[in-house]
Design goal:
This protein is mostly beta strands. The protein contains 2 helices and 30 strands. Helix content is 2%, strand content 44%. It is elongated and about 70 Å long.
Length: 494
């Protein structure tokens, strides 16, 4: 089992994402530089896998970003309950791309190649180049199709780009794909760095064609973004922090600005800024990184802020992803100013408890970490290399707006593994101390590798409620210190 979990100290109370807020999206781990891929009405967010760094005394230190070689993936159908899919080993000796040392700021795309779904993940190897991975599903398994960087200093048109990183990708309506990237500020050029680039991707999605073209983004710094709305192409980016005089038509420092065009490669017209620096909203600044995407009939912006880092009262540099609405002015197509906040976006639909639900699906939580099981399956009910939640005594997972229907639920089954003494997994409605609708009794650990199929009858669960899974010591073992891995669960209809 990969036990790289955050933080090392288990928090037995909710922190960061506080009920009923939707931001940050998860509080059991960090995730920066978000990029969104929507597939089958589900959004997958790919994020730089920020991890706590410690000194020799195990005291958290400021994030250096130098050891990040994994990409974190979460997904949701409702934008409130998020499933943790673990980490993609992108770079480093054990990564898919062994030639790369880091994996920052991923971007994802989907194409059908020869009639089959293929997913592509573009990532930055620090600021020295951009790689690409490929997979048959949004969550992997990922491989390196070319065995080298896709964009390097030898790529035509990038010779003057300070930072070769922060990719974004657009697959247009005609299936032609485009890659956007770049950043940095050459000395003496804060107003017009001219370090943003766009170029065509090959039909195979793992090659580039022609020459990269300059995007003349005023005060460009980093974080290329691209989306298409009402036949207009929107290039979005983060402005730089140089303290120089700026006129009223220039972006202020550290904000998300945008340009528009009628063609994916330009020419581009600067329009203004849409999202102020996170410090304006949350009282803690830092770099500003985003992605804009549609789900259903609404548009959203994913961005990061150091809210969980701030709540943990640790040194800066650890980012968490948030969501808020994006709205357009009718007629002009201009993007309205975006309000970032803790409340976030509304849940799109209730959660269906009568399907198999991953144990790493979380609305809110306290004292919960997740890890990836890297072992052979013990039964048909347990998938290989799946992500599980770990709960200790007093820990809980809450799922928002679970719909038990008018007839309600009669039973509950959980696939779990005890790692310590006996425990009781209580199912409650409304809060961690709310109405008790069932209890799964968990025996003490006997086989640390085996999975237990725990069951309880259910009474009192009808219609829509927040559902709480709470791990406690059983009444007949008050001094027990239970710890379980929760792999998946489901309810039975009455």
């Amino acid at each position: 089992m990969n036990n790289e979990m955050m933080p090392q100290v288990v928090w037995q109370q909710e922190i960061g994402k506080l009920r009923p807020n939707a931001n940050p999206l998860v509080a059991h781990k960090f995730g920066a530089d978000p990029y969104a891929l929507v597939h089958n009405n589900r959004v997958y967010l790919y994020m730089t896998s920020d991890k706590l760094e410690y000194d020799t005394d195990q005291i958290p230190q400021k994030n250096s970003y130098q050891s990040i070689n994994k990409i974190t993936v979460i997904s949701s159908e409702d934008l409130m309950n998020w499933t943790d899919h673990g980490e993609i080993k992108a770079a480093g000796p054990e990564g898919a791309a062994t030639w790369a040392s880091q994996s920052w700021a991923p971007a994802a795309a989907h194409r059908k190649i020869n009639g089959e779904d293929r997913f592509y993940l573009y990532f930055a190897n620090n600021a020295s180049g951009i790689g690409v991975l490929s997979a048959p599903t949004p969550t992997g398994p990922w491989s390196d199709p070319i065995g080298k960087a896709l964009v390097t200093r030898e790529t035509p048109g990038v010779e003057d780009v300070t930072w070769l990183f922060d990719p974004a990708v657009l697959v247009d309506d005609d299936n032609q794909a485009y890659l956007y990237f770049g950043g940095g500020v050459p000395e003496g050029k804060p107003e017009r760095p001219d370090t943003a680039r766009v170029m065509r991707l090959g039909a195979d999605m793992v090659s580039v064609e022609g020459k990269a073209e300059v995007i003349p983004a005023p005060f460009m710094f980093e974080n290329s973004g691209i989306h298409k709305y009402d036949n207009i192409y929107y290039y979005t980016y983060c402005s730089n922090f140089f303290q120089v005089e700026r006129d009223e038509d220039s972006p202020p420092p550290g904000e998300i600005a945008y340009m528009t065009s009628m063609h994916p490669m330009g020419p581009w017209t600067y329009q203004g800024t849409i999202l102020k620096n996170p410090g304006h909203f949350f009282g803690i600044g830092g770099n500003n990184h985003h992605a804009i995407f549609p789900l259903g009939d609404q548009w959203y912006i994913a961005y990061h802020a150091q809210t969980l880092c701030q709540a943990m009262d640790i040194p800066e540099g650890y980012r968490s992803t948030h969501l808020n609405l994006v709205e357009y002015e009718e007629g002009s197509g201009r993007i309205k100013a975006i309000q970032a906040d803790y409340a976030g976006v509304e849940q799109l639909k209730p959660l269906n408890p009568f399907h198999i639900v991953s144990g790493s699906t979380i609305g809110w939580s306290a004292g919960v970490t997740t890890s990836e099981m890297q072992e052979n399956a013990q039964s048909q009910s347990v998938n290989r290399n799946t992500v599980v939640s770990q709960l200790h005594a007093g820990s809980w997972i809450a799922l928002s707006r679970v719909d038990f229907g008018e007839q309600g639920a009669a039973g509950f089954t959980a696939w779990l593994r005890s790692q310590a003494g006996p425990g009781a997994l209580e199912l409650r409605l409304g809060s961690e101390e709310g109405e008790l609708i069932g209890t799964v009794q968990i025996p003490a650990s006997e086989d640390s590798r085996g999975w237990t199929e725990g069951w309880t009858s259910i009474t009192g669960a009808e219609r829509v409620h927040d559902l709480y899974l709470v791990l406690k010591s059983p009444d007949n073992h008050p001094n027990s210190n239970p710890c379980i891995l929760l792999q998946q669960w489901t309810f039975e209809k009455a």
